[in-house]
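Hi F.,

I've been meaning to write this up properly since the lab meeting, where we talked about keeping a consistent format for the predictions we share between groups. The idea is simple: the sequence comes first, exactly as it goes in, then the structure tokens exactly as they come out, then a line or two of notes. No screenshots and no reformatting. I'm using this chain as the first example so we have something concrete to point to.
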Amino acid sequence: MNAVVIAVIIMLVLSLIRINVVAALIIGAAVGGLVGGLSVEDTVSVFSEGVGGGANIALSYALLGGFAVAISYTGLPKLMVDKIVAAVSKEGEPRTKALPKVLIVLAILSISIMSQNIVPVHIAFIPLLIPPLLLVMNELGIDRRLIATVITFGLTAPYILLPYGFGQIFHDTIATNMELSGLAIDLDMIPTAMLIPTAGMILGLLVAIFISYRKPREYQNRKVSLQDGDAKTITTKDLIVTILAIIAALVIQSVFQSMVFSAVVGLAVLFVSGTVKLRDQDQLMTDGMRMMAFIGFVMISANGFAAVMTETGAVESLVNGAADLIGDNKAVGALLMLIVGLVVTMGIGSSFATVPIIAVLFVPLSLELGFSPLATIALIGTAGALGDAGSPASDSTLGPTAGLNADGQHNHIWDTCVPTFLHYNIPLILFGWIAALVL
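Output, unedited:
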């Protein structure tokens, strides 16, 4: 069997039996490296060099966590929740009636979608918004698996379809790597090509909302760090400063594309203004980094995993093996290419990192099989996006877990990865396959 396939299967099986994802990635990379022909020394060396690529991501998420907890300390998230409740409630009415489930779901979905295109902060909004809402969601009996699928949809579908914010980066990545591989395309073609695959994700979202997780689920009312009692009563000055800190962070993120410096600038505004006291900074930063540390370590491990898989050359042999099975059958070819994309992305955890790897192999194969440029775009874009929704190493699954598990009642694999895999990856394969055949 192919080294990438073995490595990914081992990683997924270990994760499903509740072995820590970081350990699962390291073990999967080690086995995959050895099966792929690398020595023990080479596997360790390549993995160690690869993890360095994830250091910036890990630091970014750690600082974003500190920024999020600092903002929570100002009382702004609690104020937002209280205002939402007050806006839709009657005097004396319990919150279970005042804040219907549909309002929570629509609000989280809207903010998740905007985080990719309109205000491109990606997962930075999650530790700000979700922990303060956990007690409200508990009162409403909302299944957190539903919220995980809603957030993951918002983090993934917009950049696949729309050429704005992170979508522009994703579309540029597709176009650039397809041209380097021998097929120049117009950027305007990508939204057209990705419309059908995105429809598959919409179908999966509707199934999750109206069928899979419609019934209430009970959770214990546990105190979340810096929630309610620990957050100070926000003053007008604190409110203005906090909003300015958020705006400053967004501006830095948009201009310099750096989550590290955007978080530092936001924290600096809060500390310099006195809205957050310097004496509290150590505890706030520690709490924030602890909340986001899991994401950072998984992303670091995923970079090492990807480096080992690339070094083995197993991705190319996987595609060549698929090509031998395809022959001249376009339907089989499209399906096998999507499955290869799923395997690669599930291990790497990033659609952005997967596209350059698969484009160089998929473009010549697609041209040989006679796929149109639109169909080729659909294959590469869908194959890249497949694992982003269900991979244990993807920030599109790690982000929702970081917020929903703030009180320790949400499992990353079974409550985020499995639901998002079932509701998005299966429809993506089906609708991506249809797109490749009809475009």
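Notes:
The mean pLDDT is 81.
The two ends are 33 Å apart (CA to CA).

If this format works for you, I'll send the rest the same way.

G.
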